[in-house]
Amino acid sequence: MSIDEPPVRVSDRGAATRGALLTAARGVFAEAGFAQAAVTDIVAKAGASVGSLYHHFNGKADLYLTLFEEFQNRQQERTREAIHAVRDAGESDPMRLFIAGATAYIDGCLAEREVSRLFISGDGPPGFDRVMQKRLRRWARLNAALFHSADGGVDEPLVIVLTGAMAAAVTEISLSDDAEASRRLAGDIMAIIETIRNPRAERA
Known about the structure:
Layout: H1 10-32, H2 39-46, H3 50-56, H4 60-88, H5 94-111, H6 113-120, H7 128-144, H8 156-175, H9 179-193, H10 199-203
């Protein structure tokens, strides 16, 4: 380092090490799966030490869950931005808002297929299925905010159908080996979801 270069702060170095460990873990998990992934492979890929890994994370499962939370946060932001964009453009129909958000979510899965597949594959730490279910319920509650029944409540049957359809779509798209086929499938699925109507609301 030259005298003109600012010193690297410990916090910066720590953040860089943490980021390198997460990037390495994502690659190792994607290649070997969670169960077969070795901590030694992760730290070697990151150019770090086992001690530094345990300084930033509680272990392999913590790395996996952190990657999941960060991916879901990115997905939530994609969805939020898409819904706000169409709403700001004057759209108020709940289904159109849902389609905008759902399309953004699927686009995120397509853009990060390796990461999305990692969490859909079923090869995660013990109890991860409960984490996934909790996230799905949270997503359903967010969807429910768009749909209201005539009595002012939530149109729960419609939310369940839409959320279930999206969960199945994300699974199929994430596990497909053909990126282009996945993109076509995503478009077809969204076209079908867009036709869903609630017969109770139409009778009202």
